[in-house]
Amino acid sequence: MLESSKTWQHNYQEQGFFVVRDYFSASEIIELRAVVLKFHHLWQQDNAKFYQEEAFNSSLITGSEYLVRDERISLFNFISSKKVMAVVDALIANNPAFMNTQLFFNPVNPSQKDFWHRDCQYDHDLEGQKNAIAQTQVVHLRVPLFDELGMELVPETHKRWDNEEEFNVRQEEKGKVSSDDLTTGKKIRLAAGDLLVFSADMIHRGLYGLDRLALDILVFDSAGDFADYVDDDCLPDSSMLDEIVEPRLFINTLNLKLHSEL
């Protein structure tokens, strides 16, 4: 595991991503899939118009709106399992913290196209994006629940700014649109049981098609100023912490939120 940790750390630092094939067993995926599908079906019913017209993801999977207590605890135990935490600890040495979960699926609307972006572009102007890339970043751990086309990433853009082609496509400048192909893109096909780890702030896009349903776990370094992004409802309460085998990922977030309120 130590050798794997060093490889993961090196690949993430250099490329901004890595894939671990067949990381989760079939039984682990089956158990996870059952909980996530319940959330997904209830979320679809509650958001029927949005789902039919434009949705391609949802969030707060660990929240209380659609899942009962035992199902939430099951999710929390997967997120903080030894396998997941081995990867998290390899990338974030000091006090990694849980941010959120997201679920990615195919849009119903056939006119929707997958699009290039950096997650930070939705919170910052261009200068803010450059600062975000240079500072603490959020890490996505993507767990595909079925075989899928995967993602397309632009290696090394977790630590460098866009080149001219990338900028024009991502920002839709000079006649380009964000769904245009990039010559620098690298496609990563994924199967159920794989784990894809990537920087939220690198240039990337999901690839629509097949039975796309992927759970993303978002984590961050406690040194980063991200506590305000965390929804209280997606965190375990004190009684749940006793039933989570390794709760430190959530305890770190709870402590950050407590300190931010003081």
Summarize the structure.
With about 260 residues, the protein is α+β, with helices and mostly antiparallel strands. It has helices at about 1-15, 25-45, 50-55, 70-80, 80-90, 125-135, 165-170, 240, 250-260; strands spanning about 15-20, 55-60, 95-105, 140-145, 150-155, 185-190, 195-200, 205, 215-220.
Structure, described:
This protein has a single domain, classed as Jelly Rolls (Sandwich). It is 37% helix and 19% strand. The protein has nine helices and nine strands. The strands form two sheets. The chain has a six-stranded antiparallel sheet with strand order 1-7-4-9-3-2. Strands 6-5-8 form a three-stranded antiparallel sheet, with no helix packed on it. α1 packs across α5. It starts with a helix and ends with a helix. The model has no long low-confidence stretch (mean pLDDT 95).
Shape-level CATH architecture: Sandwich
Q: How far apart are the termini?
A: 39 Å
Q: Structural class from helices and strands?
A: alpha+beta
Sheet with most strands? 6 strands, antiparallel
Please state the oligomeric state of the protein chains shown. single chain
Instruction: Give the SSE string.
Output: HEHHEHHEHEEHEEEEHH
Query: How many domains, in number, for the residues?
Result: 1
β content, as a range? 15-25%
| Order of the strands making up the biggest sheet | 1-7-4-9-3-2
Coarse shape: globular
Output the radius of gyration: 18 Å
Look at the structure and give the CATH class. Mainly Beta
Give the strand tally. Answer: 9
Low-confidence stretches: none
Helix content: 25-40%
